Amino acid sequence: MTVGQVEGWRSTDQAVLVEPVAGSDRPAHYHLAETLDGLYAPYALRLPEGPGPHPFVLVAYGNGGGGMAWLRDRVHRFRHVTDVLLDAGYACAWSRYRTEVELGYQRGGVLHADVRQGMGLLDRAPLEYEDEVAILRHVAAHPDVDADRLFHLGVSHAGEMLFKLLSHYPGLLRAGVAAEPANHELLTLRLDDDPTVQVTDGLRDIESLEVRSTERARARIADPDEVSRRLDAVDVPVLVLGREQDELQGIFRLSYELLAERRADAEWRSWAHDVHGFIYPETGADGVPRVDEVQREALAVIVDFFDRHRG
User: Are 286 and 271 in contact (CB under 8 A)?
Assistant: First the structure.
């Protein structure tokens, strides 16, 4: 089976855990999606009321790792975004995937798969965004999910993962939202000469990186032709969200500008907010989500974007 194909939902695909979500009658169903190399990536599916199949939104945040403990924490502590999506009629799932490999996307290229001695053979290990591919393929076979209406919502590194996924796996999504996308690798930005970036054992520490202007971000593109090839492959509408105070706002905005040069349906919105990942409001100790007006507006914009592209 090739990437993008969907096989039927099997008895072995049933949830490995079902648990209630506070304040809701729509529980979380934890499933394990077989990844491209035969391991498993977990996701926590929630379904809206009414008969399916429903459009589906994959919800992701940041780098990978943490496994089921991380996933269960996200399902409960950051449940508000999924409550909003459920109320709008979307099936949705917080997801978990493997840890990012430094420059793995840049060096690895497109993943090629074949068969030897009746078993799979890959030309490189899958990367974290390919675990998302596996999850999307798996959930697309669910009888209550519409395989033709799959969406992606990613923040920070997961926003970059959306762009990476689209560059290598066309035809999988209907549309996507990249919030505060840390697209320094996708855009081939030169960082080794930046005094704020330290490199140890081949791993870059970019925690202190500042790229607030699009001009500075654009000037650091190392391979414009490769960036063009990556963005030319984007085959769906993408909404890019910025945050005015963020030290990487220039990267966020440049991601939109370069995409808008290729697609008239690229969109941009930006808000002032103190929290990185503000579109995912956190639930307080009393079990009530802490949601401010900026967050409400941003989530409404996201739902409207999905609605306009759900068909």
Answer: no
